[in-house]
Specification:
alpha+beta, 179 residues, four-stranded antiparallel sheet, 45% strand
């Protein structure tokens, strides 16, 4: 009987400790260290974590390596550790002599589509993305460590051809992907 009571006490202590640990983890906001831990298994090493921020009630990070910038959704697993999901990648503009207004990518599935890119023209202050025929959504413009990115998530399938428009502060159309 004594062993049963001691075993029950040890089990209760472990259960309380584990529950406290999980609750503590689930109350922690994501950090750059969490992102670096989550990218250790990626094929190309992450050089920089540019941003960790909440966008429309979800957490996202912008990371970079030698060849690309990526945005990834951050979600907590069962024990509360942050994991990277829905990674969307855009190539680094290596043709510096060529005038490029922005680089972008559209990536998705039947439930969501992410539109992500780097804004290279400093005059572009607003980005609109056509997420459905004749329906444009304003993208979030994210500034991080001297770089500018845009991002929007749609609950629609990828709309092809993709039309993305960049506007000046006065509303002048500077660039469009639509020809």
């Amino acid at each position: 009987m004594k062993k049963f009571i001691i075993g029950g006490a040890i089990f209760t202590i472990l259960a309380v400790f584990l529950t406290g640990f999980i609750l503590y983890n689930h109350n922690q906001l994501p950090t750059k260290d969490d992102v670096f831990k989550g990218t250790k298994k990626m094929s190309l090493a992450t050089n920089e974590v540019y941003s960790v921020r909440k966008i429309d009630e979800e957490w996202f990070t912008i990371i970079g390596n030698d060849t690309s910038f990526m945005i990834a959704k951050l979600e907590q697993n069962l024990i509360g550790n942050w994991e990277l999901n829905d990674i969307c990648s855009v190539a680094v503009n290596e043709k510096k002599e060529e005038k490029v207004d922005f680089t972008w990518v559209g990536s998705g599935n039947e439930n969501t589509t992410d539109y992500f890119g780097q804004i290279l023209n400093h005059e572009i202050k607003k980005i609109l993305v056509e997420t459905e025929d004749n329906f444009f959504e304003e993208a979030n413009i994210l500034e991080a460590e001297g770089l500018r990115f845009f991002f929007t998530r749609s609950d629609k399938e990828l709309n092809l051809p993709v039309t993305i428009e960049g506007f000046s502060e006065t509303g002048e159309l500077i660039y469009t992907t639509y020809k």
